[in-house]
Amino acid sequence: MKKFSCVLILAAALSSTAWAADCKPPEAPRKIPDGKTAKKEEMVAASKLFKQYNEATTTYLACVKAEHEAQLAKYPKGDDELKKQFMESYEKKNDAAVDVAQEFTGRFNTQVRAFQCFQEGKTDKCDAPKAK
């Protein structure tokens, strides 16, 4: 009976939209300018979009953390299995957002380095993949 109760509590907690509806991961900018051919204005605009995306990601991660803490507070007497599942859900959302942000940041920084290299006229030493 105790196990069944935990399953019901978990199902209610995970299916509740009280906190899930508020935390939506930000969408990474779709296009990064090609550093080899971009104009300065394009790179500046992309940099602004990147900063907005970074801020949105930080806000999302804070929301996910608050969501997790609300789950724990709502079920303070939850057993270890319930707490473990809350933690797994939190870690999955957190890690996914961080992975996307890191991948986007890496791609953007590669293009920034290529842009700077080409601006300095070192075209023979600029080795960056084409932007996606």
Write a compact overview of the structure shown.
This protein is 70% helix and 0% strand.
What would you note in describing this structure?
The protein has helices at 2-15, 17-20, 40-74, 80-119. The protein is an all-alpha fold. It has one domain (2-10, 31-125). It is elongated, with a radius of gyration of 21 Å. Mean pLDDT is 81; it is low at 1-21.
Helices and strands, in order, run as HHHH
Categorize the overall geometry: elongated
**Unreliable sequence segments:** 1-21
Class by alpha and beta content? mainly alpha
Specify the biggest β-sheet.
none
Helix content: over 70%
- How many distinct folded domains? 1
Total beta-strand segments: 0
Number of continuous helical runs: 4
**Separation of the first and last Cα atoms:** 54 Å
Radius of gyration equals 21 Å
User: How confident overall, as mean pLDDT?
Assistant: 81
Structure characteristics:
4 helices, mainly alpha, elongated, single chain, 0% strand, 132 residues
Blueprint (SSEs and pairs):
Layout: H1 2-15, H2 17-20, H3 40-74, H4 80-119
